[in-house]
Design goal:
Layout lengths: L4 E7 L3 H12 L6 E7 L3 H14 L4 E5 L6 H10 L5 E4 L5 E2 L2 H11 L4 E5 L2 E3 L15 E3 L7 E3 L2 H10 L15 E3 H11 L8 H10 L5 E7 L1 E5 L4 H6 L4 E2 L23 E2 H15 L3 H4 L4 H11 L4 H11 L4 H24 L8 E3 L3 H11 L3
Parallel strand pairs: 1-2, 1-4, 2-3, 6-11, 7-12
Antiparallel strand pairs: 4-10, 5-12, 6-10, 7-8, 8-15, 9-11, 13-14
Helix pairs in contact: 1-2, 7-9, 11-12, 11-13
Amino acid sequence: MNIILSIVVPTKNRISYLKYIIDYFAEIADTDVELVIQDNSDKTTADELQEYLGKVEDQRVIYKHSDKSLSQKENCDLAIHQANGYYVLMLGDDDIFSKHLIEYCRVWRERKIDAVLTKRPVYIWPDVTPRLYKSKLSSTFQLPRYTSKETLFDLDALKRKFINSGGVEIGDMPRVYHGVAAKDSLSEIYKVTGSYCPGPSPDIANAISLLYTVKSFLYVDLPLVVSGQCIKSAAGKGSQGEHYEEIESVKQLPKNQSSKWFKHIPFYWSGKTIYAQSSVEALINLKLQHIADTLNREYLLASCLVFDSKYLERIMKCVRLNGLGNLPKIMFYYSCIWSNRLSVHIFRAFKPKDEVSKIQKINNIRDVIDIIDTNIQP
């Protein structure tokens, strides 16, 4: 086999979104790409999906179903493990990729690039109504300005930025989710940790692992991957202000996650806390405990105070544990984070019209990728 790219999609009970990836993939003529679907759906949905794939009849599609209840991490691991390509791109079932990515992968392989991050525009599905903008942003997509410029990342600078962020921000780290990573690099991580995503939140756990594994990491200013936000996704819940739960009630987490929770991280599930927990777990699993010990806890607690204020009592418990002498530093970061948040919304509101492409109302993600494919020429 000479597969250049494996598109892997871990999925569970979301066939209505996944169909768009399947249909789009079936229309791509290139034989050096494969689609791996790792399904953890209930029997009814799994049967429906298998019937749908039977009508497509594409030998490049690998479908596996597990009827055992899996954590998000376990489902991702199974999906990546089945990939045969030189490069792997993991998507959510509400995302999509451009067919032009395949040809770029051939070029990157010749240059021995280990990981690539591209521009990732967002499509907001019709079932999402963002908290701040309501239905104004539902069913919307904005084709970003792009230059096709390539830039090699400074891996040491990214490591410093990750440490300073307290493990709560994925930033521009290399990743297999929404990014391209060499299977060999992913296999190196697996050999050390027994997982491609050695932490409860697969995206950042994998990103940290790749950050400390890859030797060459490239950014390409082209919208080759589209991040979808549907009502059932973490991003969709976050935009609606619903990305908070008790740890024991989050079904996609590994079993007994609450017993593994680190005492300096506020005890609840949100985007910030699960990223911090995953960062520490990933570093420990990579045998990098000394780096985990240097993560900026003050920035972590400031982020929680800004984004997760409904859990103020639990956050303050960790603030006291961290030492009240560090409170001025926490409040400094708190002010910086709020300032940055306000700047983003002000910039979005007053950005000159000639500097942005028009926000379009689009009913499904397939129409989005057709727009991108038409505009991009490799």
